[in-house]
Amino acid sequence: MNTQFLISINISLGKYQDFIRKIIDLSKLRNSSYICIANVHMCIEAYKDKNFAKVVNAADIVTPDGKPLVKGLQWLYKIEQDRVAGPDLLPSLLAEASKHQLKVFFYGATQEVLDLVVVFCTKKYPDLIIAGAISPPFRVLTNDEEQNDIKTMNDSGANIVFVALGCPKQELWMHKMKGKISATMLGVGGAFPMLVGVEKRAPLWMQRNGFEWLYRLIQDPKRLFKRYLVTNSWYIYLLAKKIIFKKRKG
Predict the structure, then answer these.
(1) Total structural domains in the chain?
(2) Other beta carbons within 10 Å of 83
(3) Which one, out of 79, 131, 227, 248, has a CA that is 20 to 30 A from the CA of 68?
(4) 128 and 171 together in one domain
């Protein structure tokens, strides 16, 4: 897929269905690969940390999750790009995996959420092959624990591993696991609770107009206030700076 550099990361370009087809094609091969689902938070984390930027830019695909990234591509480069968000990708890929008889594995989140995900998928996608699910402890894994998880995923024959560890932990984990896990890994962040209805998504009008972050902030202000205040401010500043520079130059 073609890419365009935005602030700190290379965003993959294409229609929403192009991403679905590419991910399914990758997963059929069972080659070790990983996909980052990029939002403003990831973009700014990569801007602040060049090593993390290398991790994101080494991904096989980087989807434009956040509406602000889509708008950035439009305002800077006149690129009309579809939004490819984690909460949309997850059900789409589960449906496609079910259709193509591909095995899926869930990694991350709490055991309670994972149990809900498995129950939900069993009912919603009766033909889906669930290869396994692991809720790792919220600490650094020992080498033995890590090797056991790798072996479990490889032995399961999983084509797709959905990784829900949060940014930047899940991206660092996928980068480390490339070449070790024979599957396509996707960092889906908080998509599991949204899939099963534990957390509600913003109304469509908010999603379409770039205010989904505000809806999430209202739901969880203590955890997200500082992140959104810092990352959104940084992003607006950096994007405005580039737009002004480009206008002066051209």
Answers:
(1) 2
(2) 18
(3) 248
(4) yes
